[in-house]
Structures are given as structure tokens and as C-alpha cells.
Amino acid sequence: MTHEKTGGFLPASSAEMAARGWKYVDVVLVTGDAYVDHPSFGVALIARLLEANGYRVAVLSQPSHQAPDDFRRFGEPRLFFGITAGNLDSIVANYSGNAKVRDRDDYSPGGNPYFGDKAEKKLRRRPDRATILYSNLARAAYPEAVIVLGGIEASLRRFVHYDYQQQRLRGSVLTDAKADLVIYGMGERAVLEVAARLARGQDLAGIPGTCERLTAKEMEARDIPAPVRLPSWAEIQADPPLFLAAELTVDLQARASAADTAASEPLLQYQQAAWVVQHQPAAPLDTAELDALYRLPFTRKPHPACGEVPAWRMIRDSLTIVRGCCGNCSFCAISRHQGPKVVSRSRDSVVQEALSLAGQQGFSGTISDLGGPTANLYGTGCLSPQPCKRHDCLYPKVCKFFKIDEQAMLGLLEAVAGCAGVKHLFVSSGLRMELLLKTPRLLRRLLLEHTPGAMKIAPEHTEDAVLRLMHKPGSSVLGEFLALCREIGKKEGRNFHFTPYLIASHPGCTSADMEKMAARLGVLGLAVRQFQDFTPTPGTIATAMYVTGLDRETSLAIPVARSAGERLRQRQVLEHRQPAASGKTRSASQKALPRVKRMKRQA
Ligand code: SF4
After folding, report:
1. Residue 592 reports pLDDT greater than 60
2. Which of 343, 391, 397, 434 to mutate to test the pocket of ligand 1 (most atoms within 8 A of CB)?
């Protein structure tokens, strides 16, 4: 990939397009988020990448969805519309896990989820299932335009999936939206290939990292080699447990493909008289390519028309150091979306970005986070002499071939903390406790110098039966971790505090399990500060267990808290059991977005 530097925001209005002297654009990127030109926003990353490769790009942010007029703002794009719901799935952004309408959207100007003061659904800035609606409006505006879907919503809804707001399974976005292609996972390579092929007048067949919708006749003509066939929409409708089988196959395929993307087989699913064909994944960017991406000339600010955007305030002084996650927790979609292979940026690249951030007007002196999906995966890798198809590096325990480079993260902290203008450097992203147990020098440094207040840890639960279903290591890790932290604290004369993230109503979890968790947390001396109800978001194995009521490993029946009453009972165990110990107790399900880890880049 080549990158060249250009400054300023990309056009977000016809006047800004005219100011550049452009009569047309190559690509219109449509997003359900406010336009924030920061690398934590997927649209900004893709826009800058396309721009750096010579394409004219405009950003259509939070268009009106009552009529196609806004989709005509820049004229018909010469190459394609690229459509995303934004950094979050629109249903996750618009509804709590208990299907209550959210009255706040941190990715919208001022956090106001509505155009104006009236809280009406049709005035929602990000409509429900925005990918489908935007796609249909783009098609209405320009019937011949090429429409490419991407981002977290399209990626995780590319096969039959569960929609918790409608409480039903839905078909692929490709069957519902009037679109030509889905780019799944991290989209850089695929979007450049799409743009290049369209610029050359070629078709979009078989691009790695994409899904197509093909008729039986088209399938025959293509001669797609030995594909893996997922249970079809009709088969899943007739036999719902097949939904778990389908999700496990997608998951296994994603992890196996990480070893050799080129050798990966296509995945097929038949639905509504057509085949959804997932081609092999795009190879992950390597360190040099990731570095180049973060060198692009982001202004790191919201477009002036957007005003204040709360999500930007939260991440504006953070730096992404790592992409991908090999943790593969059942309730999290990061491994499926970003891939199980961890790629770290180089120290020089992160330092350059830190210096540039510190040089910006108004920088407070504090870098709020040096992280990614999981901060202490930085510098990790695989030492296996053979390609690995399992790629499940931390479960049930850390793989013997897993490479941990304590010095890499320590050196990075040292270098960034030493940058001129940086007074404080924090790591606020999630940390894997079982890895910190193996890197005591890093743990010590994080505790003493880089933790803003209480350290956030993510045991999620304390009971082994639930942890197994979460695909998390056993409960002993939490105890060992706290013991090591307290030993360090004793030596240093410090008393460390922790905020454990916890999940209620995960598939397989009962009120009795919650009671045991509350009691165990008390014994461990942990206050309950933050927890959430499990939310069955699209594209996770936990959601498939929620829908089918089956154990991911044994396929045996498990208890699932689906009713509002049972979910409330589980939540109340944490709300009521430790009120004195947790003055700031907060149910994330009621007051905040579901925690899906920090998805630093989702388009
Ligand atoms: S560390 Fe182990 S599980 Fe992970 S990719 Fe290497 S061999 Fe596979």
C-alpha cells in the first residue's frame, strides 16, 4: 500500500467538495456515526487510506433516512458507496440489552441520538439496522451505483444471525440490503482491491475478505472449490440447534484461516433463494502496514459541523498499539471481527504518534490509554514451528507456544512516557490477568505508574462452570492475580484498588451462580463497581448458546436467563449484596453501552 500526505477534513458537504474543485467523487463513505477524523473511527481510517491511494473520498455522516436526498449530496460516486452503521452495531447503539431505547449516543453530536429535541424513532440519527436502510436509500438515489457494506454491523450480520431487539433470527444483511458486497473483518485490503477493480472496470468476484450473494446459476458458473457449507436458513428454522453448529463453524474457520489465509476455503450458506459466499479472509496487515495506516494525516478531531462528540472526548488522547485478539471469549466479537492474530505496531510508530499528539494545541499532558482490544497482548505472538489451526492461545490455559515479550511492552511504556509533553501515561484498555501473572515486572510498572485510579480487570465471573462457557480460564487466576498485586503493594507500601468487570445472565449462569460470585468477591476483597447484563449481540458464540440453550462444547442443554424477571434477579444479586462495599455500583446494562471491549477499529 502507498500513502501520501494530505491535510484537512475530507469533504462532508457539497460546498466542501466544490471548494476542492471536485466535480465528482470516487467513493462516498456513509456512516451512522458523527464524522470524527480520528483513527479510532473506522470510517476515518478507511477514508484516509483510500485518499492516500489516490481516490477522491467524501464522508456522508448520519444522513437523513426518511428520503434518499442526502445520498445525492456528492452526486453518484464514480466507484462505489461504502456503507457502515458506524463504530457500533445500530441495535447495540440504540437499545440496551433489555431492549430499552437508549437516550444517549456517544457517537452523535452532543450525545443526542436524535435530530433535534423530539425523541421520535424516525428522527433517530442512527436508524435501526442502519446498514440495510442506508443501502436501500443509496440504491433509491442511484439505481446503478455499486454498494459495498462494511463495519461491525455488516461484518457480524453476514450470515444468519440473532437480532435481540426483534428477538429473532434474521438472514444475512446481503439478503436484506440492496447491496453488492460485504467486506467482513478489518477492511483495508479488501476496500483497496474493490476500488482498484472498479477503477479498472473489473468485477468484484472472489475478493479475499468479502462476501457475495450468488444465485445457483452464478455458483455453477464460478466453480467455487470444495466449500464448507453452513446449515441453511431453512435448516436452522426447522432445527434451531443448528444455529450453534453454524456459529461454531464460522468461528473455527476464522481461527484456522489465521494460519494461512490463502489456503482457507470459502464458507457458504443458502438463504432466501441465494447463496451467501464468504471468500477467504484478507491477510492481516503486518506491523509495517499498521504503522503506515496510523501515519496518515488524521486531524484527530470531529468535523466542525458535528460539534462536540462524547466518544471523541473519550478516545482523543488514546493510542492504539495492537490489533486482533487471540482470547476468543464467547461473549466478545473481537476475535471474529479483528481476527485472532495479534499484530503490534512498532515502538517507533507509537512514539511518533505520541509526539504528534503531545504537540497538538490543547493537549492536556495525559495520554489516556495505550491499548487496543487487550493492551498486554502487545508484542505477543506464536512460536510454534507448525502452522496452527486452533489459534485459541489463552484457553483453557496459555499455550506453550505463546510468545510473551514483557520487555516489548515495558520498552514501549518507557519510550512513550519519555516523550516531550507527556506528563501522564495510562493504560485503560483491558488487561489479561493470566498474562500479567507471567510478566511481574510489567504488572508492577502498570500498577505503580500507569493505572488511573482503580485497575480495570475482567474476570467476568468467578464460577468455573460459567467461566468455561465464557471460554475464560478458571477462577484460580483471579485469586493468584490479586495475591501477586497485593504482594507488590506490600513491598511498595501501596494499596491498590480494582474494578472487576462482571457479567450477569451469561448463558449457563443462574441466580445461584450469581450468589456464589457475590460471596466469592467478598472473600477476595473486591468491591462490585461495574457489571452488565449479558447482551446477545450478533456474531458471538455466547449469543448462539443464548438462542439455542446449548453448551458450546457438549451441545447439552444449559440454563439461560431470557426473561426480564430472571435477568433482573441475577442483576440484583450484585446490586444488593455489596452496597456498602460499592458506593459507585453501576449496572452497565442500564446506564451505558454493553461493553464489547475497546473496539479500536471496526470498519
Ligand atoms: S500460541 Fe499456540 S494456540 Fe496460539 S497460534 Fe501458536 S500454537 Fe496455536
Report:
1. no
2. 391
The mean pLDDT of 575-581, rounded to a whole number, is 60
Percentages of the chain per state (helix, strand, coil), in multiples of 5: 35, 15, 50
Centroid of ligand 1 to alpha carbon of 402 (angstroms): 6
Q: Which residue in 207, 209, 79 sits closest to 147, CA to CA?
A: 79
Cβ–ligand 1 distance for 134 under 6 Å, the answer: no
Q: Which atom of ligand 1 is nearest to the CA of 326?
A: 4
The full set of domains in the chain, from first to last, is 14-278 (no CATH), 317-591 (3.80.30.20)
Query: Is 90 exceeded by the pLDDT of residue 319?
Result: yes
pLDDT at 599 over 90: no
- Residue-level pLDDT at 453: 85
Ligand 1 site-directed mutation target among 386, 392, 394, 395, most atoms within 8 Å of CB? 392
99 lines ligand 1 (CB under 6 A): no
Q: 56 pLDDT exceeds 80?
A: yes
Q: Find out whether the beta carbon of 401 lies less than 6 Å from any atom of ligand 1.
A: yes
Q: Is the CB of 258 under 6 A from ligand 1?
A: no
**Residue 595 predicted with pLDDT over 80:** no
Q: How far does the chain reach from its first CA to its final CA, in angstroms?
A: 18
Q: What is the pLDDT of residue 265?
A: 86
Helix (H) or strand (E) holding 504: strand 498-504
Predicted confidence (pLDDT) at residue 257 exceeds the cutoff of 90: no
Q: Which range has the worst mean pLDDT, 229-238, 291-300, 362-371, 526-535?
A: 526-535
Q: How far apart are CA 256 and CA 258, in angstroms?
A: 5
Alpha-carbon distance 269 to 232, whole Å?
A: 5
Please name the residue whose Cα sits nearest to atom 4 of ligand 1: 393
- Alpha carbon distance 523, 477 (integer Å): 15
- In 39-79, which ranges are E strands? 57-61
Q: Is the CB of 392 under 6 A from ligand 1?
A: yes
The pLDDT of residue 578 = 54
Distance CA 176, CA 272 (A): 10
Whether residue 57 contacts residue 110, with contact meaning beta carbons closer than 8 Å, is answered with no
Closest ligand 1 atom to the C-alpha of 383? 6
Q: Is 384 in the pocket of ligand 1 (CB under 6 A)?
A: yes
Lowest mean pLDDT among 11-20, 121-130, 583-592: 583-592
Q: Which atom of ligand 1 is nearest to the CA of 258?
A: 5
* Alpha carbon of 381 to ligand 1 centroid (Å): 8
Report how far ligand 1's centroid is from the alpha carbon of 543 (Å). 25
Nearest residue to 322 via CA among 291, 339, 306, 345: 345
**Cβ within 8 Å of residue 372, ≥6 positions away:** 320, 321, 322, 323, 378, 429, 598, 600
Please check whether residue 155 is in contact with residue 136, taking contact to mean a CB–CB distance below 8 angstroms: no
| Per-residue confidence (pLDDT) for residue 268, from 0 to 100 | 95
The whole-number pLDDT of residue 577 equals 60
Which of the four pLDDT bands, split at 50, 70 and 90, describes residue 225?
A: confident
Closest residue by Cα to residue 461 from 444, 473, 447, 443: 473
